[in-house]
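Recall from the previous lesson that a structure prediction takes nothing but the amino acid sequence as input. Here we apply that procedure to MarR family transcriptional regulator from Arcicella lustrica. The sequence below is the only information supplied.
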Amino acid sequence: MEITKTSFQFLFANTIRALFKQSAKEFENQNVNITPEQHYLLRILTSQEESIQSDLAEIMQKDKSAIMRHIDQLEKMGYVVRVNDAVDRRKKHIVITELGTEVLKKCEEIINRLSERNMQDISENELEIFKKVLIKLKENAGK
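The prediction returns the following tokens.
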């Protein structure tokens, strides 16, 4: 099957790249020194009580070494810390810091503004249909 500029695969991949590029540019414009992927990682850390590298890799569908690089960078910036597990000393939990929570809040404000702007002229009905289609696509991809 030939992929054209109007094919679903092309449009979907280009849209995802455009959204990531847009948020990366806006983070930079607002002096937020993290990538959209690092933002997503911080978001995950706030939604889970305990996070270890392998769990984060699974959630983000990335390899462990890619996640480790993100964690290393976030740790250098003071946004996360590694904490030893009380039972298994080989395990390190990744915990968001107060500074990380502050930068996450700023990122969320940026993302919310961008989302509002990007969702202009998209009805609630269109959005609901799109969400249902995405769910079906994900389910079908997992078969």
